[in-house]
Amino acid sequence: MSRQRVSLRQELPLLVWLVVVWCALWQDFSPGNLLFGALISVAVARMFYLPPVELSGRFNILHAIPFALMFLARVMAASFQVMYFAVVRGPRVSKAVVAVPLRSHQDLLVTATGHVLSLIPGSLVVEVDRSSSTLYLHTLNVDDADGVAKVRREVRDIEARLIRIMGTREELEALQQEATA
Amino acid sequence: MNPEPSTVDIVIDAVSAVFMVVGALMSLAAAIGLLRFPDLLTRMHAATKPQVLGLFLLLASIGLQMRTFWVWPVLLVAWLFQLLTVPVSAHMVGRAGYRTKHLHREMLTTDELEAVVQAATQAAREDSADSPHTPMTAEDAEIESDAESAAESVGKPTE
Predict the structure, then answer these.
(1) A181 — pLDDT class (breaks 50, 70, 90)
(2) Which A-chain residues 7-66 have CB contacts (< 8 A) with chain B?
């Protein structure tokens, strides 16, 4: 195989996730099943080889828990908002496509930001420009330039939260400089 | 089955009943959205958001009613896969839909993607025609400089 081998440390989150899925599907977390799941996940990871996801090497759980709670609350808000627009406004709801340049150039972080944005109120990722890491969002209820600026601010705020959770050190430093400036 | 349900049973039953009704309402909201919204991209909002919450509530009420710990990991995995796949499918449909007749551009109040897509289409056409001598119009140059300045503003904070 000509491809570069990934280290076990880089592969570990994937393996753990596969074991969890295996045991969840069997509804059995006994040691024997864990071991067999680990064997299967190593075999799967070896046979069906995917490009490794580049992790930044840091994960801040103190920022992650409030973010997860905020995310759940926003998902609920999003559902009720779409319900309101569907029932009350219907065809008259205003829409826009907004370009938002992101700070991070990491695939994982751009993907995470896009996923969160698609699930929270009013925005849906239509297009991603990977070279300039720009997201193009379809947004509901945006009428004018003020609304566009508001969307952009919110998106960059969510990206900042994700950088605090799992961005690289360089991105975190840049973020702190931006905040003090 | 106990002949007399305890208070805990009543509370659990009430909570799961509320979850099921609200979850079903969310699916209804998605259906109403699909009918009432005017174009494809707006309908994608209705197709993605309410049903993620609806599924969450229905799975939670299953978990409450089953009363065993071992069912929770399955439900969690099911919901996580939903969270991971819904935005991807919505993105693919939206991305394809933007380039078809189903995009009603006149309904958008702002469209910052149009220029980029047109520039890319133009570039692809020039590549396939293999005609490097096509003069660059003022509009193209403007788009290019816009893209460059956007790239610069993105590049700075990560330095």
Answers:
(1) low
(2) 20-21, 23-25, 27-29
Average pLDDT in the A152-167 region?
A: 86
Per-residue buried b or exposed e for A125-140, using 16+ beta carbons within 10 Å of the residue's own CB = bbbbbeebbbbbbbbb
A133 backbone φψ class: left, alpha, beta (φ>0; ψ -120 to 50): left
Structure letter (DSSP) for residue B1 = -
Mean pLDDT of B136-143: 48
* pLDDT tens-digit readout, A94-132: 888 888 888 888 888 888 888 888 888 778 888 888 888
Q: What is the mean pLDDT of residues A146-169?
A: 84
B2 pLDDT band (50/70/90 cuts)?
A: low
Q: How far is CA B80 from the centre of its chain?
A: 15
% chain A with pLDDT above 90:
4
For chain A, the maximum distance between any two Cα atoms, rounded to a whole number of angstroms, is 60
Is the minimum CB–CB distance between A71 and chain B shorter than 8 Å?
no
Min Cα–Cα distance to chain A from B154, Å: 5
- Beta strands across the sheet bearing A123-129: A123-129, A134-140, A95-101, B108-111
Nearest alpha-carbon partner for B16 in B74, B58, B55, B53: B58
Place of tokens 């003022």: B138
Question: Quick one: pLDDT band at residue B30, thresholds 50, 70, 90?
Answer: confident
Q: What is the DSSP string of B58-117?
A: HHHHHHHHH--TTHHHHHHHHHHHHHHHHHHHHHHHHHHHHTSTT--GGGEEEESSHHHH
Confirm if A125 and A136 have CB atoms less than 8 A apart. yes
* B112: nearest CB among A98, A103, A119: A98
Using CB atoms, which residue from A76, A103, A131 is nearest to B158?
Answer: A103
**Closest alpha carbon to B58 in B28, B88, B23, B104:** B23
- Which stretches of chain A are DSSP H helices? 8-26, 31-47, 61-84, 107-119, 145-166, 169-180
Domain ranges of chain B: 7-104, 114-158
